[in-house]
Every structure is written in C-alpha cells, then in structure tokens.
Design brief:
This protein is α/β, with parallel strands linked by helices. The chain contains 9 helices and 11 strands.
C-alpha cells in the first residue's frame, strides 16, 4: 500500500512540475516574441520623417547613351514607394544631364544663361517621367516647377509643397532654382532647407565618398562619416561649392549612397549604415 502511495505522490509531483515548466516556457516564449517584434518594428521605423532625394539626370539613362530608361524609372519608383509606405515625406530634385547639359559655352556655342534655361526644361521632362512612374506604382505625386508652365506642373510655392508632403504626396521640384548659373545640387540644397527636410540623400552610382574616384583608382578608400570641413580641405567633390556651403551653414546633413542598388534607399531611411554621412 505504501509503495502505491509513494508512486502516486511521485507521479503527481512530476505532473505538477511539468505543468509549471510548460507555463513558464509559454510565458518565456511570449516574452521573447514581444521583444523580437518590438525590435523588428523599431528596425523598420524611419529615422528621418522628411527627406530630400537628389538624383542625377544621368542615372535615369541606365545603360543608354541618352534619354530615359523605363526600367530604371520603374525601379526608382518602387524604392521611393517603399519609404513612402513607412510614412516618410519625400521631396525630389532631379538633374537634366541625360537630356541637355549647358555648362560649356565654347563647346555648344550657346551662351551660358540660355544653356542653363534649356537644362532647366530638361529637369522638368525628367520630373514628368518620374512622376508618371510613381503614379503608375500607386504613389500620389506632385510636380512643381520654378519656371511657370501651368499645363504640365504647379508653380513652386513653398507652403503648398509642404502641405503636399504633410498629406503623404511625393513632391518633385523641377527647373532648378529658376535662375541660370545655379546647379540642380544648389536647387536641392535650397529646397531641402526651405521645406525643413532633415537630410539630403544624394543618390549616385557609387556607394559613398572615397579618397579618390573608385572607378579610376582601385586603391581609393571609402569614408563612413566625414565632416563638411574635411570634405573642403581634402577637395572631395560631393556637390558644387554653393550647394555644399548652403548645407554646411544650415547644418543640413548629406548622405551619399548608391541609388542603383535596390533596397538601399529603404536602408538609409531606417538608419542602416549605407553610404557616407557628411555632418558636423
């Protein structure tokens, strides 16, 4: 009889112990799941609320020698859509070098001011192309021009642009600053400061700033972070000096990264170490 009682108590003890262990393991699993989900959500939260994306016109050519590549536009549209869906407010400035570059008066025979105006029209064409690609991807987009052309674009009005951004629309700024002798880099810096963007993301075909041109010098090393003054002292061509000085004086950071790598834009916006940060 005592043996049966001992066996009963022994089995009952282990039954209760197993139940406790199961409860603890379920609780631990739930806690782990909460921590994992919290970290995953934090990782996907954008670091920047409002950004200005600066794209070169040449990037829209893809492998072509001139004009626009629809595949590149479609890929850029998907990348931009991915950050808009996170709630990031996106403004864009595009160059016009894939259509016309009017810098060299001696070569073109066209005076500099006239050539710059022609370049501004090229940026509007690129803006219209990207707007079409974004709207095809389901992203509400507005194109604003510094030169009045109401049939194809809204006139640039700062408060209206900011209102569009607040409503979740992508705003593309075309026609540069509307003035000759200023590059689209300067237009990008100026617009970023005007709309109170937190950062300029300069999308290029290289993955950051190097000590030398990495396409020409295989020994060139990449900077992960560099100050404005160091860029000037080392004569690193991040932007033209007018644009760069605007950013430096207004303490607006710049991130240079490879826009041609799918998913890089999302990584930059969520705070991953991609490209080179110019700050301080």
């Amino acid at each position: 009889m005592l043996i049966y009682l001992f066996i009963y108590r022994f089995l009952n003890y282990w039954r209760i112990t197993i139940k406790k262990l199961a409860f603890v393991s379920r609780k631990a699993a739930k806690q782990f799941q909460k921590i994992y989900l919290r970290k995953k959500i934090q990782k996907m939260l954008p670091k920047y609320k409002r950004i200005l994306l600066k794209l070169s016109g040449e990037a829209l050519m893809g492998d072509k020698n001139f004009g626009l590549d629809s595949d590149v536009i479609s890929r850029y549209a998907q990348d931009i859509k991915s950050i808009v869906e996170l709630g990031v407010q996106v403004a864009i400035v595009i160059g016009g070098g894939n259509i016309y570059r009017g810098m060299n008066e001696a070569e073109t025979g066209i005076e500099r001011a006239q050539g710059d105006y022609m370049g501004m029209l090229a940026t509007v064409i690129n803006g219209m192309a990207l707007q079409s690609g974004l709207e095809k991807a389901g992203v509400y987009t507005r194109l604003q021009s510094a030169i009045k052309m109401e049939q194809v674009a809204e006139p640039y009005i700062r408060r209206r642009a900011m209102r569009h951004l607040e409503k979740g629309r992508v705003v593309i700024f075309g026609a540069g600053t509307g003035n000759p002798y200023f590059t689209t880099d300067t237009a990008g810096s100026l617009r970023a400061i005007e709309i109170k963007a937190e950062v300029i993301l300069k999308g290029t075909r290289v993955d950051g700033i190097y000590t030398a041109d990495p396409e020409k010098d295989p020994t060139a090393t990449k900077f992960g972070h560099i100050s404005f003054n160091d860029c000037i002292s080392k004569n690193l061509k991040v932007m033209d000096m007018t644009a760069f000085t605007l950013c430096m004086e207004n303490e607006l950071p710049i991130i240079v990264f490879n826009m041609n790598e799918p998913g890089n834009l999302l990584k930059v916006v969520t705070g991953e170490r991609v490209g080179t940060l110019v700050k301080g």
